[in-house]
Design brief:
The protein has 296 residues and is an alpha+beta fold. The chain has helices at 8-25, 33-66, 75-96, 100-132, 135-148, 199-211, 263-267, 273-281, and strands at residues 162-171, 174-180, 186-187, 189-192, 214-228, 231-244, 255-261, 291-292. The protein folds into 2 domains: 5-148; 162-292, Nucleoside Triphosphate Pyrophosphohydrolase (Alpha-Beta Complex), CATH 3.90.79. Helix content is 50%, strand content 21%. Bound molecules: fe (ii) ion (2 copies). One fe (ii) ion binds next to helix 2, helix 3 and helix 4. One fe (ii) ion is lined by residues 55, 58, 80, 84, 117, 121.
Length: 296
């Protein structure tokens, strides 16, 4: 049966979860430690970069609505919560279980439980949700999931880093930041570099999409290797110091609002910590000594 489009974000993430389970199950029990430690870090990155949010969204958005139609001790409601808790416990053991044998065992059990859970949701829980919820409840569920889950599912292919650009937009009024719809924290703008794009082109495209401005001057501050949505990434960080157009929140699905902040206001803002450190280190107006963006 075709999945209701309002549940499709959850299903896309299920595909990644099944790929991860399969990868673990294909790893022989006597695999070298290096292979296992790569799997451990993939599991932990997938957990913190997507699966935890996925579970929370299912409980807060889907289960909460389902409970308007079924009793609290309904076997589907009970299983959803029990599975999530058991899988979370296994992730904890993968992360800091006592001894190599316990971690190996937890890894195998994690794969089995995750695969069974995802299949059960696809075969039983989601069809039940689609038939029990009224159309307006399904609309509400779809909107809640869209606000909480990324458009692209977190990847479990951690073999090659993705390229990402991030921009500090700085002007006379201070730092322009966006409040992330996903978790309510303030952060910089940017996103993945597409296919053959140059990072500078990606920067201009992202700011056009998110702020409706055309970047005129920018300055590359640093390159960092770190996790982005649970995947290893090479992140190019820029200061954007001159643009044409008046910034507006052009991507409300990504940011609930945008606003300017002074350096003092940044100190106590609920914001992405790395972005705060970078912004505070930025020397303004020294950033006026900028590179001129190449003409588009
Ligand atoms: Fe679930
Ligand atoms: Fe799920």
């Amino acid at each position: 049966m075709k999945r209701d489009p309002r549940l499709v974000r959850l299903s896309r993430e299920h595909t990644q979860a099944l790929m991860l389970a399969q990868r673990i199950e294909r790893t022989p029990p006597d695999a070298p430690d290096a292979d296992l430690s790569s799997l451990y870090s993939t599991v932990l990155a997938f957990w913190s970069g997507g699966l935890l949010t996925h579970f929370t969204a299912e409980t807060d958005c889907l289960l909460a609505r389902l409970l308007h139609h079924v009793a609290e001790d309904d076997e589907r409601a009970v299983r959803l919560q029990r599975d999530h808790l058991d899988i979370e416990t296994l992730v904890g053991t993968v992360r800091d279980g006592a001894g190599a044998a316990a971690r190996r065992e937890a890894l195998a059990a994690f794969a089995t439980r995750l695969r069974d859970h995802v299949r059960w949701e696809e075969e039983t829980l989601f069809p039940a949700t689609e038939s029990l919820l009224a159309p307006d409840e399904l609309d509400g569920l779809g909107a809640d999931l869209a606000a909480r889950l990324p458009e692209q599912p977190p990847s479990v292919d951690n073999t090659r880093p993705v390229e990402v650009v991030r921009a500090h937009v700085v002007g006379p009024r201070g730092f322009l930041l966006g409040k992330r719809a996903r978790d309510g924290t303030w952060s910089t703008f940017g996103g993945k570099v597409d296919g053959d794009e140059e990072p500078g082109d990606a920067l201009r495209r992202e700011l056009r999409e998110e702020l409706d401005i055309d970047v005129l001057d920018y300055h590359r501050l640093a390159d960092r290797d770190r996790k982005w949505d649970g995947t290893p990434a090479r992140i190019a960080i820029y200061a954007v110091t001159r643009w044409s157009g008046k910034p507006r929140n052009a991507a409300p699905r990504e940011h609930s609002e945008i606003a300017w902040f002074t350096r003092d206001e940044l100190q106590k803002l609920a914001m992405h910590e790395q972005a705060r450190l970078e912004a505070l280190r930025l020397e303004w107006p020294a950033t006026a000594a900028v590179e001129r963006a190449a003409p588009p």
